[in-house]
Specification:
The chain is α+β, with helices and mostly antiparallel strands. It has helices spanning 36-56, 61-76, 201-207; strands at 13-17, 20-24, 81-86, 89-92, 138-141, 145-150, 161-167, 182-188, 190-192, 199-200, 211-215, 223-233, 241-252. It contains three helices and 13 strands. A hairpin with a 6-residue loop joins strand 9 and strand 10 (199-200). Helix 1 (36-56) packs antiparallel against helix 2.
């Protein structure tokens, strides 16, 4: 059966963005999509059409990207981080399903699809697939608030949110951490209720304009770091879904704190399918009344 070409319908709706409320395109007529290839084709068409709108100057760039990502996520039912506010400065993220040469340079490591990582031993666990270097680096002062924004709406509300950092041996635009280099600066999981019906941090993310805000430890030693946001969706029985994204930073300040080895972990390596919090069926009879969830990995480093 021939698939109808995707058509974009622009509505004059207001949409909340990190810069305030703006008039933005907010709806797309999405055809029935049956395969991964069709999903990719649809998203590429959507991005191309948004670029045409951008060239006409009809809409703000950020609103176009946010809207394209919103209906792309509806088609794919997954997603990732699209933009950042780091210490008050705004940064666009990488646009998946689009060539790196056909979009502005970004601080974010490349990620190519909205699909999750489902193998905890995959090299893509660090910074998604394919995780290639971004061209830019954001300078952020230790102690600053950092906010990541996901596609709107983020489709999953069951699972923890974890924010990691790792020191790069040089500029993070050309080098990557290795071994036990990653440390947590923030995490939240099951906040109330039971595993299957309770309130999770991921639901807070959705309620907060599909965003998550953390604070870089004020005493962290200056240097080059990756900032890694990770969502672990566990709504599907025994089939965890990781959504990792990395941004390249240079941290400034006068701090001297560095995490001890007990705070450090390797990614991949910190997770295993033998972990009960990873290979989990939240709907099983045994878990019906469970009201606790231990987020895997080391404790949060606070400086």
């Amino acid at each position: 059966m021939e698939q109808e070409e995707a058509k974009i319908t622009i509505l004059g709706m207001e949409e909340q963005t990190p810069r305030g409320r703006i008039s933005a395109p907010a709806f797309a007529k999405i055809p029935a999509i049956r395969t991964k290839e069709e999903t990719g084709l649809f998203i590429r068409r959507a991005v191309f059409r948004s670029q045409l709108l951008l060239s006409s100057g009809a809409f703000m760039k950020t609103s176009i990207i946010a809207s394209v990502s919103a209906f792309a996520a509806s088609a794919a039912a997954h997603g990732g981080v699209l933009s950042y506010n780091l210490g008050g400065a705004w940064y666009n993220g990488f646009v998946p399903y689009n060539s790196p040469t056909n979009q502005p340079a970004t601080i974010q490591r490349e990620w190519d699809t909205y699909n999750p990582i489902q193998d905890p031993t995959s090299s893509s666990m660090a910074c998604n697939a394919n995780g290639a270097f971004g061209k830019n680096v954001a300078t952020v002062k230790a102690g600053s608030k950092v906010t990541a924004y996901w596609n709107n709406p983020w489709p999953h509300n069951i699972g923890p949110v974890v924010v990691w950092m790792a020191a790069c041996p040089g500029s993070c635009a050309s080098t990557s951490p290795s071994g036990n280099a990653w440390f947590k600066i923030d995490q939240a999981g099951l906040e109330s209720g039971t595993l299957a019906t309770g309130h999770w941090a991921m639901a807070d993310l959705i309620a907060n304009n599909n965003s998550w805000t953390s604070t870089i430890p004020s005493t962290l030693a200056p240097g080059n770091y990756l900032l890694r946001h990770e969502l672990l969706a566990i709504h599907t029985s025994n089939a965890p879904q990781w959504y990792p994204e990395c941004a390249q930073l240079t941290i400034t300040g006068s701090g001297t704190a560095k995490p001890a080895s007990s705070y450090l972990a390797a990614i991949p390596g910190v997770y295993s399918m033998s972990d009960p919090e990873v290979n989990i069926d939240i709907y099983s009879n045994a878990n019906q009344q469970v009201t606790t969830y231990n987020i895997p990995g080391p404790a949060v480093f606070k400086g």
